[in-house]
């Protein structure tokens, strides 16, 4: 009994997660195409189960009463795909479990994007589906929704037989022609007999993986990413090819360079984002005039698509992710210092010699002190009244694991006297004993001096509110550079820091300029916030 209850709980967790990914994430994800019918209305599993008995056996009710499907079961994935095609598109298909089972919302994204490329949703158009698969899903969707004509190619015997049967049983043979082609055939051989027809587009789901290890996720999946939310199905020719998707698409590019205006648009869907940049670079090298890309999303599954054309009059859709990335880059990072903290920081700044009366001047002074200790170049720049602005340029990441680095340096310095003493014992005469007392009194003093320098407690401030004290060579160099951080040629981060007045509080805002990645600015922002709040806490205890 206990075992059954435990299994029910495990199934509930699995099914609830998958249902949430499909029903919640998919409905809210902005990456889905605006015209995708599942964008704002995910499938109702309970309703579909009540209408289709073959789907009902794969639907379970969890303890909260929600109808869920286990996407780790190939039979369940197949049942859902066939049910959605029947319910929403009037299509009846058959798919063998040993071949690729497509997900309908993701494929629908691709169809809608092709509609955008050819600028005509309902006009008769001609397309090519490279490797149509057993489901023949792209031609069936394109033909039933838009009346498009399709040439669907396939190299696998089983896939060819099922695709032909699916076209025939949906009475779409007048719009979809499924052709069997030899292995490694892409576009050139498929168009040998049709020398005069100009196609509007081609579509392709290339094999994503180069070998079985990649297909299983070995050395090809980021360890921090969660495991796939659905089962991976597909035949060898559907999921694997020599060189993976990168080389496969390069072969299509090679064919397009010979065919050129035989197709208005060439397109491919990609399973890896890292494939996008080298393929775009390949198209640039080959002088292809029109290139664009997009991204598709279904739940946790992300795909990317690339399209190119040799026509000058085609309309090139802008990548939908471009504006979103720019918005993320422009959005500043910020944190608020409450009025009580601001007053404490003013006292702290006065103790350091700051003569400015305004609270923002005091906070800016403390920020500058921290930046100097971090060896982050900074200088004040013109800004509005009641504000302070600093231009920051970091040559290296000095704010992560700083405490551990200092401890390691101090540990190494502690070991220096021992190493010196051991070497001296091996190389000297009994005269060492005569100087033993002198060494014992001098070396601890030298060690303490080095430790103080490493600790970096005494540093010189940049002009404005300054403190005085001894500096090591690193601090001196940083201080000299701090007057012109904009002139640094090699850096990991450059950003603009603003200290703003908000009622009785103060806000520190960091705006991205350029650098290796925005995470560095996020880390530095967190470091500055923690440093200021620790200063407040320390003042409160004194």
What does this molecule look like?
With 542 residues, the chain is an alpha/beta fold. It has two domains: 2-217 and 229-326, Rossmann fold; 332-401 and 456-541, no CATH class. Helix content is 46%, strand content 17%. It is built from 19 helices and 14 strands. The strands form three sheets. The chain has a seven-stranded mixed sheet, sandwiched between helices. Strand 13 and strand 14 form a beta hairpin. Helix 5 (104-118) packs across helix 6 (137-146), helix 13 packs across helix 19 (518-541) and helix 15 (402-427) runs antiparallel to helix 17 (436-455). The model is unreliable at 1-28, 209-221, 223-229, 234-240 and 428-483 (pLDDT under 50).
